[in-house]
Amino acid sequence: MSGSCDPSQLRWFSIKVFERDEKAMEQLSLSDSVLKQIEALRQAAEQEFDDDVESIITHERYLVISDILKHCYRKQSREKLTVSDKIDRIVTNRILALPIFAVVMFVIYYLSITTVGTMMTDWVNEVLFGDIIPPAVEGWLTSIHTADWLQSLILDGVIAGVYHTLPDCYAHAPLRDYGDKLIMQSFADMHLHAPQYPMLGMGMDLPLLDWLNTYTFPTESRFADLDYARRTYRRLASDLITNGTTRVAMFSSLHTEATWVLMEELEKAGVTGYVGKVNMDRNGLPGVLQETTEESVRETLRWLEGCRFEHVKPILTPRFTPSCTDELMAALGRIAEEKGLYVQSHLSESIGEIQWVRELHPECKRYWETYDKYGLWKDHTLMAHCVHSDAVERKAIKDANVVVVHCGDSNVNICSGVCPVRRMLDEGIWVTLGSDIAGGAQLPMYKVIATSIRTSKVRRISDDWHTDFLTVGEGYYLGTTAGHKYFGAGEGFAVGDKLHAIVVDDEDFPEASHPLSVEERFERIIYMTHRHNIVSVWSDGREVVRR
Fold first, then answer.
1. I need a surface site. Which of 142, 146, 348, 423 has the fewest CB within 10 A?
2. Which CATH number fits domain 7-70: 2.60.40.1930, 1.25.40.10, 1.10.287.1770, 1.10.10.10?
3. Among candidate residues 224, 216, 210, 225, the one with its CA nearest the CA of residue 198
4. Is residue 191 classed exposed, middle or buried when 0-12, 13-18 and 19+ CB atoms within 10 A define those classes?
5. What is the percentage of the chain residues whose pLDDT exceeds 90?
6. Dihedral angle at the C-alpha atoms of 77, 78, 80, 84, nearest 10 degrees?
7. CA pair distance 370, 381, nearest whole angstrom
8. Which of 90-99, 122-131, 439-448 is least confident?
9. Under 8 Å CB-to-CB from 412, ≥6 apart: which residues?
10. Alpha-carbon dihedral sign for residues 297, 483, 197, 406
11. Domain spanning 184-531 has what CATH number?
């Protein structure tokens, strides 16, 4: 019989199936109807216990283990305290704990700085207070239920100010000297497609819509395979953070579980930002990469319920108007309003796309109105491309405080055109940059910045030299501060912000004919940096890469 097993193993198999153990389920060869019944039971259990099934089973195991241990040993005396118990009572005392901790830290620093010298100081700064004490302190603070704000104050790298010389009040603070290397803001990639990472550099000769059907949709369909998703997204996260990108606004696929995997891998790597499960109920690949309207709404809500990450948050992501029916757009608008979520999508990327939208929505005079009519056109909505946004559309962008994400590399690769970035900036529109992989073939944002500068020069030529191109400083601003502001950060290294920074070693660049100014070194970094030149990356106050 399908799904049968040895009666002696019935309990074991029941637990494994409940936990979604793939190998156990393969051995049983359960029918679809049985699998549906099991899944219904899982969901009911998760709802009742307010936790996922793996955590439920784990919790029950620990309860059983604890009960067993109670009967396996007994203290010789409940009255008499051991030396360890006496010490614990003192150092974990509600009143004395923090003063003791402060005294210990002072003594260690005093001894290391005044008696042992530089060698000991380096060890204290980099090992003791880098690798040992912070995790221990964090665990202790958590165990005594310290408020989040206090933990952040104690543990996180918050910018106190930028000074020519170190103020006296920080004289005894841990100091890491990077020598002649440049400390710069990290990058913010405000538009990229995570499931397109495997197809970097493919299909660059195709127009947008042909490229989507030939490469994009078949590639994204692979992410129903969670093992494949895990391998791909882990590498993507590593690629991002080691190239100095610490903040992202990213598209996933329409697969709920794979989207959670993506968010998890970004979190582990130290990347912060927003990730969106794609919504797509028309003009995809039916049966392969397309949802029903009901399924898309249901899975979006399920995905949102499962987003419990500290540094990676959800953002609603209708792929673009041709991929979403009116019913789906209306539902997403309601969800955005009810849950206070940001939105990301595409706008006016190519002439063919714009014409397609007109055919699908003859009631809308402008592309942007297809989002506005459902409450998706609002403050902080991210709209990628806007290559062909005319004066009317640009005014609508400015009035709603919609954020434009310029993807110069992608737009040129797919021959969509060049976004009028200079005109937008002059009109007061909020513009950021995105790699837009895999339409864009470059993930490192320093390369994206350089390409954005080049495409602005092409735009200047096509505008008969009536518009200015982006300078190096402006391109860098769009790829850093302009994106970081989306997350509430201030300008540059603003006081009170969590540190998002990279340290760049340009020593292996070709020797110049004259001593270089900081501005000249900065320009070379934008155009010539490679991954190995980035020797340290700080994200949200944490050093997450160190070479």
1. 142
2. 1.10.287.1770
3. 216
4. buried
5. 63
6. 110
7. 14
8. 122-131
9. 418, 451, 455, 458
10. positive
11. 3.20.20.140
**Helices within 278-350 (DSSP H only):** 293-305, 326-339
> What sign for the dihedral angle of Cα 186, 190, 195, 197?
negative
Asked if residue 375 has pLDDT above 60, the reply is yes
SS3 344: strand
> What is the residue extent of each domain of the chain?
7-70, 83-155, 184-531
Kindly report the number of other CB atoms within 10 A of residue 526's CB atom: 19
Question: In this structure, what token pair is assigned to residue 111?
Answer: 């001894």
Nearest of 419, 375, 436, 433 to residue 400 by alpha carbon? 375
461-489: b or e for each residue (b if 16 or more CB lie within 10 Å)? eeeeeebbbbebebbbbbbbbbbbbbbeb
The kind and range of the H/E element at 107 are helix 97-111
Tokens matching residue 394: 């640009």
Tell me the average pLDDT across 314-339: 98
Q: What is the mean pLDDT of residues 89-114?
A: 71
End-to-end Cα separation, the chain, in angstroms: 57
What's the pLDDT score for residue 293?
A: 98
* Dist CA 98 CA 104 (whole Å): 10
What lies within 8 Å, CB to CB, of 506 at 6+ separation is 181, 182, 521, 524, 525, 528, 529, 533
Under the banding of pLDDT at 50, 70 and 90, the label for residue 288 is confident
Instruction: Name the 3-class secondary structure at 210.
Output: helix
Q: What is the pLDDT of residues 53-96, one digit of tens each?
A: 777 877 777 777 777 766 775 655 555 666 666 777 776 777 77
Q: How far apart are the C-alpha atoms of 38 and 44, rounded to whole Å? A: 10
